[in-house]
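Quick one, T. Sequence first:
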Amino acid sequence: MRFWTRATTLHLAAAGFWLAAILFVGLAAALAFPVMKDLNPTLPGFSGYPDDHWIIAAGYVTNPLFGVLRVVQLACLAVCGVTFLLTVRKTKGRVLSGVRAILLVLTLGAVIFDIAVLSPRMQGELAAFRDAAQAGDVALANAHRSAFDADHPLGRRLLEGGALCVLGLVVTGWIASGHKRTGTEGDG
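Structure tokens:
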């Protein structure tokens, strides 16, 4: 029983950390872009590109956070997957176990798609945009920016959907752990 408790606790900690990481990166991006827009900086390295230096600056600030998030997601997904497999047989309720398995498969699919397909494509367009903007090739820079912008809604939906699935892992993991609510009912 002690092994199960530790594995369940590790599962909850990994899922909680994962959710916090997603929320942190999303919040950082949501704050950085409007602040940079208000500051309206001019970047000397991009003097040949006349448009929206604020979006370039905000991207330089937030892009590394998404790279860290990908590493966190892989690590937490691995921990959640292994601890789920180690504890699922002791979990009461087939429906609960099924829901947890579905949530893990959905997050696995989203993370793999992001890391293997979407992120490389977006990072390639971002790098090409920056290179063209620095070189002053406005038409080429705008073409790469448009391609990046076209993928951005999908990236956002993946992040939001992933956050909901991970929240589901936290909730179903807590329920599966059998934690009882302790309170002071009846203490007046």
